[in-house]
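Data deposition worksheet. Section B asks for the primary sequence of the deposited chain exactly as it was used as input, without tags or linkers unless they were present during the calculation. Section C holds the resulting structure in C-alpha cell form. Section D is free text for depositor observations; keep each observation to a single sentence. Incomplete worksheets are returned to the depositor.
Section A, Depositor: J.P.
Section B:
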Amino acid sequence: MCIVHMRVQCSDRFSELLVGDVEHAELTIENIVGLALLEVFDKVRIDNVTVHHSPEGSDGDEGRG
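Section C:
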C-alpha cells in the first residue's frame, strides 16, 4: 500500500471557478485526481479533499527573481 499526501496551490487567476460552489469544486478535484492516480495504481481511495481561499493571495511566483 502507498499513501500519497498532496497539497496543491493555484494562482488567483482561476479562483472564480471555485468560489461559487466549493463542494462541487472538491468533488471535481477528487474525481480528476482519482482518475489520474488510477493510471499508476490498481486501486485508489481518496480520504479528504478540501478547497479554501488563501488570504495571502499568492500567485505562485514566490522565490522567483
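Section D:
Helices lie at 16-19, 22-38.
The mean pLDDT is 78.
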